[in-house]
Every structure is written in C-alpha cells, then in structure tokens.
Specification:
heterodimer; A: mainly alpha; B: alpha/beta; 6-stranded mixed sheet; 4-stranded antiparallel sheet; elongated
Chain lengths: 270, 308
C-alpha cells in the first residue's frame, strides 16, 4: 500500500470519527456569518453605524480605514472576531492532538502494529487539519457570499471579494499554524489533555502578547514571536493586500512544526 | 479460502539478541536473548510487570530498545519495521478500541493497513470460529462486552493470515468454550506453518498449546525450554503406601524424601523411576502412586522466587 493510500485511509477514518465535531463547527461558523450580515443589515437600516463611528477609538478608525464602522467592516468582523479565532483554533488544537489521544487510549497499538511509517499519523493529522480548516473557512466564505446576496440592503457598500478572501486565507493560515504547533506538542506527549492544555495556554499567551504589542511599542519586538502578530485583518480592512511576509511566516511555522512533530514521533516510544 | 504465504524466509520467526529496555533507573527488560522457530507455538510467561508486554512492543517497534536487537524472520524490527510488521498479526493486551466505530469498520480499517490481502471469506470463518455473531459486527464498539472486544481483536490480528501471530493475553475475558475454540484455531494455524508467540497467565492453556516456553522474571529470562522439559525439572511425585511400618532406607541418587509417616513415603524423583523399583521390591508395598508434575508447579516456583 502506497504512502498516499495509507494517509488517505487514515484521514478518512479521522474524518469519520470527528464528523460530528466538524459538522457542528461548520454549522456554527456559517450561522455566525449569516448573523453578522443580518446584524449589519439592521444597523445599516437603522443608521446605527453613524453612532458606532462616534464611539470607536481613533486608532481603530485609522487601522481599518474607517471600515470598522460600516456595513462592510461589520461583515468582515466575522473573520477577526476573537470568538471565531478561539473557536477555530480550539478545533485545530483538538485535531492536532489526535496522535496523543491514540497513544493515551492505546489505539496506536492497533494502528502502528501495521506496516505504517512513523510519519504516517503526523502526516494524517496535518492533512486532516489543512483539509478541515480549508473546508470550514470555505463554508464561512460561502455563508458570507450567500448572506450578502440575500440580506444586504441595496444601499450598502459591500466588502470587496479580495478583502474577504484575503482575510479568510490569513485566518486559515493562522488556524493551521496553531494546529501544527499542537501537533508538534502532541507528538511528544503521552496524554491528549496535557498536549491540548499546553497548546491552548501557549495560544492564549501569544494572543495576549500580540494584543499588548499592538498598543505598547516596547512590547512589539516580543510580540513578533506570536503567530497572532501575522494575522492583521485591520490592515486588510484598510485596503492593503495580505502581506506575503505574514503568509510566509505562518506557513513557515506550520512547516517547521510539522517537521518537528514528525521527528519527535519517529524517535519516541509509543 | 486461505491466503498462501509465499516466500517465507527460513530464519527464526523471532530472534532477540541481548535486548534491553530501561526507563530512567527502571530496567524493564535486561538483555534477553532467545529465538522462536517458524511453525512453533511459543508461550511467553511472567508475572505482571515482568517485561512481557515491553518485549512484545519492541518486536512491533512501538518501543525502541535501549540495547540489543530484535528480528522477525531475519529482518530487524527497527531497521526493517515496515517489512516485519507486514508479517505480524498482533493482539495487544490492552485493546484500545475506538468506541465510535463498528466492528466491521475497525476490521476494514486494519485490513486496509495490514499490508497483506485480506480474504473476506477467511475473515468470516474466523468470526464464526470465535463465536462472534456476524450481526454484532455492524454494532458500535461501545456496545461490545469485554469478551466480544477480545474476539474482534483476535479476528483483526488473524484476518490477513500473517506468518507470525503475536498475542498478548489472548484468552483474557473469553469464556471457556471460546477459549477452547481459540486453542483449536491456534493449533490449526500451527498445522499450516504459522508461528504463534503468545503471552499468557493461564498456565493450563500454555501447557496444552505451547511447544516451548520462556519465563521472564524482573526483565530476565529465567527459563527457556520445552513444556515437557520444564515439567521434568521438578521431577515426578511418587507416593508409596506400605502394608506395615518400614524403617527409612538410603535412596538412590536423584530421589528425595519429601514426606514420611510410619507406613508411607512421599518421594520426588528427578529422572527415570526404574532405579526405585529394586528398592521397593524389597519392601512390603501396598500401593504406589506416580503423579506427573504440572507446568504450574514449575512456574509457581519461579514466580515465588520473583516475589521473594
């Protein structure tokens, strides 16, 4: 059996195991995007954005090129909302720690007693992570597109396709990077809970570090180590393209974590 | 239909050379060496924590040895792990089954990953012989009893008809009828040239099934022999009752008096019993009983030493 066929078999098995979680995540983010479009429509029709603009801090207006207090900005908020990030990153960590779960439950004995390379479970997890993230983010994009088609007021200025896709791509890269970091941690862990807690705490600390770095310039050099630093949706809302450096750094974090995970898993006792 | 095993090498089915595994200061396995010949049923015995499962998991490259090497049919278990694992059907002692799967889904998944073709008819014949109901295969594994899980694990290990079966406590949780069915199945597999390496606590099972045994104690092999030789190690017990009281007399070499009353003796005879007969001929023997030693007696003495 070829390596690709083995990975395909393992990925199919993992998707089957986690279909409930993935469907519920998909439904939730789709519903959230519809809700954002619906809420934006109501605010637009009630003139609410003018009131919000008065309340918004100056830096936010500056960052988002005044889009934060607009119909388009509100719709795009669905891609940068901390809850959305938290939700997707938690799912990625859950997927990334599957290997540790298999070791903890001893399912690994059944799996790895077969002629599988040690890299197979890590590659399976990464393929699953990338596929699931792309699937969920695509569902978000579809929901936004349908929501705008069905619910947007005729007078509203819609967000540009490039901005929406760029933000979704940046979000997907961030989520995949965190999933890959969780995979690397799980590849050295005996228990899923330990790996998930470590990855979760690291993500939270990184989020806080990035947040502080955005307001306090002295903390900016430290914030550069946070993957969240390379997810800058306000800049895209302000009309700037997705920076290739952010893409490269997040893709690099994923690739390096993938390699570390494969090495750790290959060398460890199962 | 049975899938023929083509081109099996002539090397030992299993060979361990100075195999050791340590966890920090804990020595789980301390430089063990032995070989299992193709086509034999080998019983690997020992108390809990003696190193049985560690040894088995090294064979499957789930654990990496600290020292030494293990090979299967001449191929190194670490360097040629893909090839060696393709030749092994494994039943873990602790079955970690995914409760969300059905029996069929698990068997299909493991069949696809086994590296050998799986004949559906052969798989069903195993299901039937192990008395696992076919309709149970479509049930979720969370509804399975301990015995059903064990049977499913056995089918998963055997379905690809591998040349080597490594079974960790195969009868744990099985009722006596299914245990017997499994024994018959293992004997049939041996008859078809398959090698079976099993660890067990059930000594009667080992005695009935195995050609040879290895006893591991605190990570070291303390006994490696045929079942017959192991039995002989303790010697036979001979009970003699006399028609009247007799005086003690010197016994031939290899015989020990283990109990004595005025009109009876209990003797342990290590070798042939012939040397005892001229002595008894001169005494007023009323009854003579020769008790064949059980493997359990031999192993109990090894285990007792381990405990002490």
């Amino acid at each position: 059996m070829s390596g690709a066929a083995v990975i395909a078999t393992l990925v199919r098995h993992s998707f089957r195991r986690r279909r409930g979680l993935l469907i519920s995540i998909g439904v939730t983010v789709v519903a959230f995007q519809f809700f954002m479009v619906l809420a934006a429509r109501n605010l637009e029709q009630a003139g609410g954005f003018r009131q919000i603009e008065v309340l918004l801090p100056a830096f936010m207006k500056q960052w988002s090129n005044m889009m934060a207090a607009s119909f388009a900005g509100f719709v795009l908020f669905g891609y940068l909302h901390p809850l959305v990030q938290l939700f997707l990153i938690a799912t990625a960590i859950s997927i990334g720690t599957e290997g540790a779960s298999e070791i903890e439950t001893r399912f690994v004995d059944l799996l790895m007693a077969r002629p599988l390379r040690r890299s197979a479970p890590v590659n399976r997890t990464m393929v699953m992570l990338i596929t699931a993230t792309i699937g969920v983010v695509s569902a978000m994009l579809l929901a936004t597109w349908l929501g705008l088609r069905w619910l947007a007021p005729a007078t509203a200025r819609l967000p540009g396709t490039t901005i929406v896709v760029s933000m979704a791509a940046n979000l997907a890269l961030l989520v995949i990077a965190w999933g890959a970091i969780a995979t690397a941690i799980a590849s050295a862990a005996k228990r899923r809970s330990t790996a998930a807690a470590a990855a979760g705490l690291l993500a939270f600390a990184s989020f806080v570090l990035d947040y502080v770095g955005r307001f306090w310039t002295a903390a900016l050099p430290f914030a550069r180590v946070s993957p969240f630093h390379y997810f800058d949706p306000f800049r895209m809302m302000g009309g700037q393209p997705l920076p290739w450096t952010d893409v490269a750094v997040l893709a690099g974090i994923s690739a390096v974590s993938w390699v570390i995970a494969a090495i750790c898993y290959a060398r460890r006792d199962l | 239909m049975v899938i023929p095993v083509v081109g099996e090498p002539r090397a030992p089915a299993i060979e361990l050379r100075d195999l050791a595994k340590t966890y920090g200061s804990v020595h789980a396995v301390r430089g063990i060496s032995f070989a299992v010949a193709p086509g034999e049923i080998f019983g690997f015995l020992g108390l809990n924590g003696a190193g049985k499962t560690t040894t088995i998991r090294i064979l499957l490259d789930l654990l990496r040895p600290t020292r030494g090497a293990a090979s299967i049919f001449g191929f190194d278990c670490q360097k040629d792990h893909l090839r060696t694992r393709a030749m092994v059907g494994y039943l873990p002692g602790e079955l970690g089954l995914d409760p969300h799967m059905t029996g069929t889904e698990l068997l299909d998944l493991l069949a696809r990953l086994s590296g050998r073709p799986v004949d559906a008819a052969y798989r069903l014949s195993l299901v039937d012989r192990l008395e696992l109901q076919r309709h149970d295969l479509s049930r979720s594994l969370r509804e399975y009893s301990t015995g059903m899980k064990r049977k499913l694990g056995l089918v998963s290990a055997m379905q690809a008809d591998p040349p080597l079966l490594v079974l960790d406590e195969p009868t744990e949780g099985l009722d006596p009828l299914v245990q017997r069915a499994l024994h018959d199945l293992l004997v049939d597999l041996r008859g078809r040239g398959r090698t079976i390496f099993l660890s067990s606590h059930v000594l009667s099972e080992v005695e009935r099934l195995c050609d040879r045994i290895g006893v591991i104690r605190a990570g070291e092999i303390v006994l490696l022999s045929t079942v017959e030789d192991a039995r002989r190690r303790t010697g036979r017990l001979v009970r003699v009752r006399f028609a009247r009281a007799v005086e003690p007399v010197p016994l031939p070499a290899g015989m020990t008096l283990t109990g004595q009353t005025a009109d009876s003796w209990s003797l342990r005879v290590e070798h042939e019993i012939g040397a005892l007969l001229p002595l008894l001929a001169s005494l007023p023997v009323r009854d003579l009983e020769i008790v064949e030693p059980a493997l359990e007696d031999v192993l109990r003495s090894f285990y007792r030493e381990a405990r002490s």
